[in-house]
């Protein structure tokens, strides 16, 4: 069988040198496989200027201007989300190399890089499709990318008092949240900001979304899981007459005249997983379920 000549686009964290120590391993492996390698412009400059590496690539790219077989994300989950936002509806599968700490999305360890890429070339990996949500600003302008793999959050600004978030699901009134904010999360994002605010862990591909309040004024208000076919409308009131909308952590200021409509996007994000990886075992490992702290 003739060896595959694949094309790869590489995203990385250009702020922390220690998170790029494995890039030489990846570049050497792909060069041996005669792969075409493209590196995101800011990351390429970082590797050449700051790390002074001799980076041999087919080209560099900016924003969405790449057409490859696979994307490699070098960093933590934040870098992975950045790569996912650039992939968008292209459908390019993403491999996450975890150079950070926890890493639910970037789950390939530096010591597993060559094994993971060998499995990819051998066709022994599986591709998971993860739901994406999008937000529409009615009565206002949303400047950035409206799509989120993890979550879309409505938040109060700075030291402002809590905000009121009147919430409808499929046109039916749910509740007016009096809180610091509200998180609308996908199953993929349920282990991120949602989890730190007391929201539930949602199994991937479960067809669900979750609404989780941030520091609600009433202790009776709890997270609620809904079908991912639902349309969510949020009308926000604030003493400062504005608020923040954070889309996978990318924040924009909006005025309270702007309503937000959140729904499932038409496209999904494809994530490369090793065949021996299992979701529940990942949860046990990452969240240290069953670990006895007294043994330390």
From TrEMBL:
EC number: 2.7.1.23
Encoding gene (name): nadK
Lineage: Bacteria, Pseudomonadati, Bacteroidota, Bacteroidia, Bacteroidales
Name of the molecule in the record: NAD kinase
Cross-referenced NCBIfam families: PRK01911.1 (NF002521)
Binding residues for NAD(+): 77-78, 82, 150-151, 180, 191-196, 215
Function per UniProt: Involved in the regulation of the intracellular balance of NAD and NADP, and is a key enzyme in the biosynthesis of NADP. Catalyzes specifically the phosphorylation on 2'-hydroxyl of the adenosine moiety of NAD to yield NADP.
GO cellular component term of the entry, any: cytoplasm
GO BP: any one term: NAD+ metabolic process
Keyword Acyltransferase recorded: no
């Amino acid at each position: 069988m003739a060896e595959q000549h694949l094309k790869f686009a590489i995203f990385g964290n250009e702020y922390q040198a220690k998170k790029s120590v494995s890039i030489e391993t990846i570049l050497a492996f792909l060069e041996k496989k005669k792969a075409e390698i493209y590196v995101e412009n800011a990351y390429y400059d970082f590797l050449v200027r700051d790390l002074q590496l001799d980076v041999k690539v087919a080209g560099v790219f900016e924003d969405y201007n790449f057409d490859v077989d696979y994307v490699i994300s070098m960093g933590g989950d934040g870098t992975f989300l950045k790569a996912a936002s650039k992939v968008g509806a292209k459908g390019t599968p993403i491999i996450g190399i975890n150079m950070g700490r926890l890493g639910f999305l970037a789950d390939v360890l530096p010591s597993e890089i060559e094994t993971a890429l060998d499995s990819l070339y051998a066709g022994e990996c599986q591709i998971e499709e993860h739901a994406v949500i999008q937000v529409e600003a009615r009565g206002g302008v949303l400047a950035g990318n409206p799509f989120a793999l993890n979550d879309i959050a409505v938040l109060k600004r700075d030291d402002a008092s809590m905000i009121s978030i009147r919430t409808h699901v499929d046109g039916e009134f749910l509740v007016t949240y009096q809180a610091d904010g509200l998180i609308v999360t996908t199953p993929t994002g349920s282990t991120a900001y949602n989890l730190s605010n007391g929201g539930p862990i949602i199994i991937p591909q479960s067809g669900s979304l979750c609404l989780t309040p941030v520091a609600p004024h009433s202790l009776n208000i709890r997270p609620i899981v809904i079908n991912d076919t639902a349309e969510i409308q949020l009308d926000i009131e604030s003493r400062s007459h504005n608020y923040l909308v954070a889309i996978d952590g990318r924040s924009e200021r909006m005025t309270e005249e702007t309503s937000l409509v959140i729904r499932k996007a038409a496209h999904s994000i494809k994530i490369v997983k090793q065949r021996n990886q299992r979701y529940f075992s990942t949860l046990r490992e990452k969240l240290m379920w069953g670990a006895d702290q007294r043994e330390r």
